[in-house]
Amino acid sequence: MAKATAIVHASPALGAGFAQYTAEMEAGGTLGPCVYQRFVFVLEGNVEVELDTSHRVLRKDDYAYLPEGTEHHVVAAQASRLAVIEKAYKTVEGVCPHGPIFASALEVAGQPLMGDSCLMVRRLLPDTMALDFAVNTMTYQPGAALSMVEVHVMEHGLLILEGGGIYRLDDQWYAVTAGDFIWMGPYCPQWFGAIGKTPAKYLIYKDWNRHPLR
């Protein structure tokens, strides 16, 4: 990094199988190449992703997926904040890694979770064996909540983007609001309900499409 600060939220030092941080960048600040997979989501500002032969402009709510080994730089055109996820890629025999992805979360169609139109999921990455993790946004209308306490083999990195609510982790309850981050290890019981007068929205990572023994 240059002219930028990383606020590290989760990493293997904590026990996570990935790294997630907020990059706070000055105008002209850069993130250099990453030998791992990198997912970048623009929280504020305007950045350019420079590839070998092209570049892409990302604004608020835009995102990029850059496969492992992709030569690139992320350059801030103005003061910017990014949510960044990095992870070593787990190969599968006969499956080619996915290429770069550039898109806007605002253009991804929402799907009701389990038929509940008050809880919309937007899948930011394709559901394909070529990818070994998923990143979604989940938007809850005021008063909406998960219909069950979940327990599963995947871990999560979760960043509250808007609004707030109550998050249950194991047998503890936490009030959360925009800017808060939660790391959930595998098998951690979890539940969320939105409170307040505005919708709650978060960005959530999970490992995906790989056998847990790999």
Structural features, described:
The protein is globular, with a radius of gyration of 17 Å. Helix content is 0%, strand content 55%. It has no helices and 18 strands. The chain is an all-beta fold and 214 residues long. A hairpin with an 8-residue loop joins strand 1 and strand 2.
User: What's the tally of helices?
Assistant: 0
- CA-based shape: globular
pLDDT averaged over residues: 97
Count every beta strand, where a strand is a DSSP E run of 2 or more residues. Answer: 18
In angstroms, what is the radius of gyration? Answer: 17 Å
What are the low-pLDDT stretches, counting only 5+ consecutive residues below 50? none
Main beta-sheet annotation: 9 strands, antiparallel
Strand content: over 45%
- From the N-terminal CA to the C-terminal CA, the straight-line distance is 31 Å
- Class per helix and strand makeup: mainly beta
**Residue share in helix:** under 10%
**What order do the helices and strands follow?**
EEEEEEEEEEEEEEEEEE
Architecture blueprint of SSEs:
Elements: E1 2-10, E2 19-31, E3 37-44, E4 46-50, E5 55-59, E6 62-66, E7 73-76, E8 80-87, E9 101-104, E10 111-113, E11 116-123, E12 133-140, E13 156-162, E14 164-169, E15 172-177, E16 181-184, E17 190-195, E18 200-207
Antiparallel strand pairs: 1-2, 2-7, 2-8, 3-6, 3-8, 4-5, 4-7, 6-9, 10-11, 11-12, 12-18, 13-16, 13-18, 14-15, 14-17
Q: Gist?
A:
The chain has 214 residues and is mostly beta strands.
